[in-house]
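Title: [Solved] LysR family transcriptional regulator 3D structure

Original question kept below for reference.
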Amino acid sequence: MDLDLRTLRYFVAVAETLNFSKAAARLNMSQPPLSLAIRQLETQMGTRLFERNSRHVSLTAAGAMLYKEALFLLSHAGSLKNRLQHTSDHGRLRIGFVGSMVYRGLPALLDQLRAGREDINIELAESNSGDIVDKVAMGHVDLGFIHSNQVPAELQDEIIFTEPFVLCVHKDNPILKKPAPTLTDFSDQRFIFFSRHVSPVYYEILLSLCISAGFFPQAVDETRHWLSILSLVSQNMGVSLVPACMKQCGLPDLRFIEFEHSQRSITSVIWAKQRRDPVVDQSLETIRRFYELER
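Solution (posted by the thread starter after getting help):
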């Protein structure tokens, strides 16, 4: 036997008003469809639910029993809907992040976001900046942490972290034997850059750092992730310029060299202007406080 919630609401309205006209007005519908729905319900139940004549409507014993059950079912359905909405929307925060955020305080930030909010469910998705921008724009992600990148007009961005670049080389690189090697000393070596397609801004920054040091890199390999770059350098497959936070990566056989320059690696948080909710707003405030303390 299938009972739909709409029919139960019709039945409850009649049971509580004991008047088909008043019940129809309460339900914002006309009386004939309501009378038909009640007759169909009685047929489905196999018993009369109301005693009615031209002047009086009353519940039968079966009707009184169904009224109690209907109230329970409708109440349970309403509370279930609220719990599901709370779980799937109000308590959920979907975060897209570039891998290097792990070394920019992401684990500690997540602890802060969860602090005092036992109902929050944080979903993490690692990707590159371009993909994160697309996911936030499409509503698949609530907040995104990205590198320097242009964002569409429907998104809002805010810089949360800036840092210098460092030169990353293998520990056995012969140029390290010099007392104070500079970026220019590595001009003839193979450079590994962040992908021009994934992040044109970062690619141009890295290229400009080399040009400012007086050379144009002749051999350039490209990858989509900073950790991939560091892994290649750790296998002595080239040298690179990486954000200073990557010194914390823990990969073996790497050496990091600081050098003078004005460009900075910029990390921003992005969100959709038109899809704001309390969880996103509260999380943004936590993010601002966290990085103000860390700077």
